[in-house]
Amino acid sequence: MTGSDKFWPLLGIGLDLSGAIAVASLAIWLWPRRERFGNVGGPVVVALFLTAAWCLAIASAMTGRLVLLPSLAESARNLGWLFVIYRFFASDGRHASLAPIRPVILALAFVELLHLGVDAALTRASFEGAFLRVAFESNVLFRLLVTVGGLVLVHNLYAGASRETRPGLRWPASGLAFLWAFDLNLYTIAYLGGDWPLEIAAFRGVAALAIAGAFLLAIARNRDELRLKPSRAVTFQTFSLLVIGVYLVAMVSVAQWLSYAGGDFARLIELTFLTLASAFALVVLPSRRVRGWFKVTLTKHFFQHRYDYREEWLRFTRTIGSSGLEAKPLGERVVQSIADVTDSPAGLLLAPGEQGELTLASRWNWAEIEVPAEAMPLRALEVFERTGYITDLDDIRAGDDSTSPGIIVPQWLLEDRRAWALVPLVHYERLVGMVVLARPQIVRKFDWEDFDLLRVIGQQVASYLAENSSQEALAESSRFEDFHRRIAFVMHDIKNLASQFSLLARNAELHAHKKEFRDDMLVTLRNSSEKLNALIARLSRYGNGAVEKLEQVPVLDVIDAVAQRFKDNPQVVVAERHDLIVNGNRHSLEQVLVHLIQNGLDASGPDSPVFLAVSADGLNARFEVLDAGCGMSAEFVRNRLFKPFVSTKNGGFGIGAFEARELVRAMRGRLEVESREGLGSRFVVRVPLAAAQDIYDNIANKDQRVA
């Protein structure tokens, strides 16, 4: 026997004994802790003992050919692990939802039992020659069937697991996969070579050591931290070697197949294939695009991300959401939030101008760069708006059109070497801005992760800019609305005065010769003039709800003025009068009561009275206007009565009730309404008494201190 014939059996015995000791020790240690695997703990311990027995069996029968004892032990080992896999499936209920699981395991168990029967029959009979070779190949095929079936089950066990259960299956599945993958290679080589490979079989103990280590890691408390994290250089080199190996195997396989095909042109076809394959390898493999695709693919799937996205998002939120007196303007915060991603020290924000071109909107730490009035023309924006492409200006300067097709960059950006990148801000397929980043201290090429993060933050920033533009437009619209409201109020008051002047002019044609009429006309003209002056003085209050000034007003004077206004209309009846003094504005109070009485007259029949009464109500003077008109529904009172520019009258402005309520509020009072359809309405105006002014002032000051 040669030295090599002695070496391999000795090595195999040593590894098998090591594997048996490791697996048996793990099984003994795990037995009192088997609950860590739940209801799978018991089967795992049994399978580990069977694996230890298998290691001892093959160590005792290291004779170079298969015998019954190792075969029996291996079958028992396989059956034990198949049962463990089934219990893993059952632990999360997939043995019921995946109907083929139980039949597959039963079929594999049947193959193992069949193999044992064939193996036992072969050991009891003596065969020679071709029949013995067929028997050997049949036994090996049985093993291959079980091995492939086990690998398929392991793959389905881990790949189909839920996210919660997958961490607990990672290491057990890895150990079983290693065990059966080793057997797959061993039996494949044995089948192709027609003989038992002693050199490879000597390392079967390594599989036992691997499964012991995997299950030990599975019960470790820090198992989630035990992940393979190779460096990028190692991964790139390993992957390159793997690609080269696969390529060589493919070439050899195809060439071997062509040689088996035979024929007169077989040699020529084989040489042609090798030539084309070599040319393809020389052209494609050195390509920058292919190598770049390999790197991006590996980086995406083999490494944790460069950025800590939680930290990046928190920093972005702090930057863009900062407020207060010391906070930077929104434009500068937009630039800073994007520049922080790439460590850029400065940047610009370009925003659409009146004609759609981009103009300078804001600078951040970049005061020295000269930006033209038209920073980027309209024709250059279509590509950015359509694709959202993040542009590396160094590629544009180098003339590399392959990385930036159709991109038009202004000359002022290309001439300034500090300008480094363009990040478009797209919101709902509309370009709302462009950020120009300055060159950082350490320049690197953008990769897929930079693009992804910048694109997401750019979209978020674009939404902030779009929202800010909407708020500015809304504020401007509000200012125009306030202006229109003031004009409407002015027109409403002027219409009332114009009605008085028209009535005065018609009556003057009939009664101008009467001294009493002329005296009345002078009073009316004086009152109208005062109201016009008050209207001009009050124009500034319509935007903020204020009155010209608050003063002590005798209530009887207001009641007399209102009654004088309607003296020719017998429907208006002053039902109750009290000598009170309120703190308010006389013209505003008269205007409110006149409006309410006029509304009561409009809603009532020609013979239906409208009552006006005033009384004391606690700290307030209570003005009450009561009519028996058509009334209003609760829905109208709640949703339409005090809504400006909504009127039920033909030609009405719909601001009388709204203006009346605002005037009463400006006098620290309240306007209340009660109405029933078909019965009439009651308007109640409460205005603070002058004697209670100190109390109201104290309440107001207290509220301000609390606020």
- Tally of domains: 4
CATH class wording of the largest domain: Mainly Alpha
Q: Count up the helices.
A: 24
Q: Which percent range describes the beta-strand content? A: 5-15%
Classify the helix fraction into a percent range. Answer: 55-70%
CATH architecture of the largest domain: Up-down Bundle
What oligomeric state is this? single chain
Total beta strand runs: 12
* Low confidence ranges: 222-229
Lateral arrangement of strands in the main beta sheet: 2-1-5-4-3
Largest sheet composition: 5 strands, antiparallel
Task: Report the structural category.
Answer: alpha+beta
Please tell me the overall pLDDT: 78
CATH fold topology of the largest domain: Rhopdopsin 7-helix transmembrane proteins
Radius of gyration computed on alpha carbons? 47 Å
- Coarse morphology: elongated
Protein name: histidine kinase
Pfam family, one: HATPase_c
Transmembrane segments: 6-31, 43-62, 140-159, 171-194, 200-219, 239-259, 265-285
Domain Histidine kinase: 489-691
